[in-house]
Amino acid sequence: MPLYTYQCKDCGNTFEQLTGVVSDKKGGKCPQCLSQNIKRIMSSFNVGSNSGNSNPSCPSGICGLG
Question: Is the pLDDT of residue 14 over 90?
Fold first, then answer.
């Protein structure tokens, strides 16, 4: 299941929620104030680990960072 980040438009609380891929739910309620006035926001993600780097064009494992 994807983990989405939401922000409450009423109290400003930011929270994460697991949501099914085919779910019709748009995020539910803010856990702080229980408002349904929320929006999904961009969150960071990780696509893998740099340990045992298999990318020959980036032997140091830190290419593109910085």
Answer: yes
- Is the overall model pTM greater than 0.90, yes or no? no
Q: Which residues contact 57 (CB under 8 A, 6 or more apart)?
A: 63
- Map out the domains of the chain as residue ranges: 3-41
Contact between 33 and 8 (Cβ < 8 Å): yes
Query: CB within 8 A of 18, min separation 6: which ones?
Result: 1, 2, 3, 4
- 31 DSSP assignment: T
CA distance 48 to 41: 22
Place of tokens 């929270």: 15
Own/partner pairs, 13-18, CB within 8 angstroms, 24+ separation: 14/41, 16/43
